[in-house]
Design a protein that fits this description.
Layout: E1 7-9, E2 20-25, E3 34-39, E4 42-43, E5 59-62, E6 67-70, E7 79-87, E8 90-93, E9 97-99
Antiparallel strand pairs: 1-2, 2-6, 3-4, 3-7, 5-6, 7-8, 7-9
């Protein structure tokens, strides 16, 4: 079963240095969906250590739960965030939401 449009929760504004949690979830997809996050249409790597571009980012992305957690946000984390739920039957994307730091 193709995933339905996931529900995304993105904080509107976060002070520099604070933590922020972004959530993405949908229940219809079978098999269970995995989740990927995008900032300004660029995919966020689930593995920040192996990707030089994300070395300075302090976030944890869990593809199974759809949770994206920033441990200490910085100005560079400002942007439009969206999430895609994917399974064998297809994918669905939530609306982009702005997060300001």
């Amino acid at each position: 079963v193709k995933p339905m449009t996931p529900r995304c929760t993105v904080p509107k504004a976060v002070p520099v240095g604070k933590s922020a949690s972004l959530h993405c979830h949908e229940n219809e997809g079978y098999p269970k969906s995995t989740y990927s996050w995008y900032r300004n249409s660029e995919p966020l790597s689930p593995d920040t250590k192996s990707n030089a571009k994300f070395q300075n980012s302090s976030y944890t992305l869990n593809p199974t739960t759809g949770t994206l957690v920033f441990h200490a946000v910085h100005k560079g984390d400002t942007g439009r965030y969206s999430c895609i739920a994917t399974n064998d039957a297809g994918f669905a994307k939530c609306e982009e939401q702005e997060m300001e730091v």
